[in-house]
């Protein structure tokens, strides 16, 4: 029997976020120990493992700032995580929603750990497609990591959840 005020599913969603953090940090540790900064190991014509450092946010937003962005993005990730826990507690029966925000929280915390430990986020997945060339130099999509992938998956699931919610209400 669940205690009052505590959703029996919250532990599951927090564990899922923790698994994202663990997988993210494990893969980044492997990259740091196997690659020097700037190294690239092509695995196919369109995919390579690389080691890149991003002191900014998505697409290197604010990467050239004087260092304050490290603390700003770390604080933002921690605040977002606290808000996500509150949302999961408020909507415990919405499984897709809770999955989505768990992914976002796990990804955010994975990148927060990087910012606090290293002062930058470690990225290592790089894709190259000719059709990206007009937007990204050489067709190389900016390198990213598992945390970024979890955040993207979570955002996609939030969109799907909202579409489903609107359709049910109609």
Description:
There is one protein chain. This protein has helices at 10-34, 68-90, 95-118, 146-169, and strands spanning 40-42, 47-54, 121-127. By secondary structure, the protein is mainly alpha-helical.
> How many angstroms does the end-to-end distance come to?
35 Å
Which secondary-structure class do the elements indicate? mainly alpha
Based on Cα principal axes, name the global outline. globular
H/E topology pattern: HEEHHEH
Taken together, the total number of domains comes to 1
Strand content: 5-15%
Helix content: 55-70%
Main sheet strand line-up: 1-2-3
- Major sheet, described briefly? 3 strands, antiparallel
Task: List descriptors.
3-stranded antiparallel beta sheet; mainly alpha; single chain; 4 helices; 170 residues
